[in-house]
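ARCHIVE CARD
CATEGORY: sequence design from structure
SOURCE FIELD: tokenized fold
FIELD CONTENT:
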């Protein structure tokens, strides 16, 4: 709703001005209890002003479907003002109509792009994030996902449903040699020849360009290739400063616009802060708020564990993978010395080790304490950040190693051994 809309004042600022024949009354505010600029307009001037407003709004893309003809000849000045406000209200209503959502609106079914077992990780029109510390194998995880989508074999090694869709892979930091190895891995996982130029995959290396040029190249590739899944390995490199709040909001807004307008899903890879599961910078914070799914990757020895950090849909089950020799799956020359991600069991060495939070709670507090006190002690003894300590306590609770009641946490009576990550 446009409140207190001043037609005469707005029109004058845009290039339309009423004649000055009646302007003398403008300075005589004492003659009227409630003065309006419309009081000094003739019928012809009101008609001209309304025509001007229609043309101005139409030039901005707001096309009124059918505006009623309103007689002004015999109407009073107050009626003219009321009719004009109704006219503006109609234009405004038509402007917001395409963005209105109602409970009885018939919507198309959600179109999954990436599904893990019965959980939807990525759907059309949304964005997601893969976060983790450096060298936690985030790119390998994305390789596993894409390779499973385009596999020639109907059996997926990771439980990811096959989906023969176009994929656009954007790399912002690796050399051409390492990017080509990513393509080799995708083909090995998809059971194609290593050098097969898969028409479903379009890969761009944009690290030599400026952030603004990278954005232009990405959108041009989206328009040309028309992918259903876009992987941006190094989303923070599409901006100059990932700690700039306004720029971060603008970039994430652009990602949402792309995913909506081009009916695709955009998977973004970025680092977390050291010893934390929080994505780095304002960009990371904004992206985590807007993402459909946030997958957290962290290392335990030679294995990488993938956990559902935030999910708008049903959370997927945590799983682990490691890197195996590609020669076991492909006899091509390019497979020599090439590593490929393969699913594996959860780290066995962790199953016999007491969880850090359980051990600290038992040793320091006898098995029960305020959650805040436990967090401080976890920070102190493990040398980690506050966020990371809170994350470890939350995970221990989720795995039923600890029980939370109000502000207290206590060791579960029947179990004191769990997984340490």
């Amino acid at each position: 709703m446009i409140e207190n809309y001043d037609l005469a004042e707005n029109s004058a600022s845009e290039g339309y001005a009423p004649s000055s024949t009646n302007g003398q009354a403008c300075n005589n505010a004492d003659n009227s209890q409630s003065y309006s600029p419309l009081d000094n307009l003739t019928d012809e001037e009101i008609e001209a002003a309304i025509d001007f407003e229609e043309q101005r709004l139409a030039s901005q893309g707001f096309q009124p479907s059918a505006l009623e003809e309103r007689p002004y000849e015999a109407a009073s000045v107050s009626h003219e003002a009321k009719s004009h406000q109704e006219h503006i209200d109609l234009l405004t209503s038509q402007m917001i109509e395409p963005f209105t959502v109602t409970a009885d609106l018939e919507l198309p079914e959600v179109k999954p792009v990436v599904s893990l077992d019965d959980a939807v990780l990525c759907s059309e029109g949304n964005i997601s994030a893969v976060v983790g510390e450096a060298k936690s194998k985030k790119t390998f995880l994305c390789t596993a996902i894409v390779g499973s989508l385009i596999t020639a074999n109907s059996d997926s090694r990771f439980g990811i449903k096959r989906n023969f869709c176009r994929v656009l892979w954007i790399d912002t930091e690796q050399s051409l040699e390492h990017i080509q190895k990513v393509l080799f891995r995708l083909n090995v996982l998809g059971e194609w020849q290593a050098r097969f130029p898969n028409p479903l995959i379009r890969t761009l290396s944009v690290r030599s360009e400026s952030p603004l040029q990278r954005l232009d190249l990405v959108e041009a590739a989206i328009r040309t290739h028309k992918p259903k899944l876009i992987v941006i390995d190094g989303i923070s490199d599409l901006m100059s400063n990932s700690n700039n709040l306004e720029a971060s909001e603008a970039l994430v807004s652009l990602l949402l616009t792309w995913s909506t307008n081009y009916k695709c899903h955009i998977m973004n890879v970025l680092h977390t802060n050291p010893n934390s599961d929080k994505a780095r910078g304002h960009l990371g914070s904004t992206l985590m708020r807007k993402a459909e799914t946030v997958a957290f990757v962290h290392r335990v020895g030679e294995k990488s564990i993938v956990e559902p950090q935030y999910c708008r849909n049903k959370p997927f089950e945590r799983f682990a993978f490691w890197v195996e020799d590609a020669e076991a799956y492909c006899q091509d020359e390019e497979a020599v010395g090439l590593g490929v991600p393969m699913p594996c069991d959860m780290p066995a060495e962790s199953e016999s080790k007491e969880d850090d939070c359980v051990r600290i709670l038992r040793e320091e507090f006898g098995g029960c304490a305020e959650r805040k006190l436990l967090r401080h002690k976890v920070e102190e003894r493990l040398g980690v950040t506050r966020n990371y300590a809170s994350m470890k306590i939350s995970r221990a609770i989720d795995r039923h190693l600890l029980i939370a009641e109000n502000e207290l946490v206590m060791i579960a009576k029947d179990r004191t051994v769990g997984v340490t990550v």
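CARD ANNOTATION: The CA atoms of residues 289 and 301 lie 30 Å apart. The two ends are 53 Å apart (CA to CA).
SHELF: design records, drawer C
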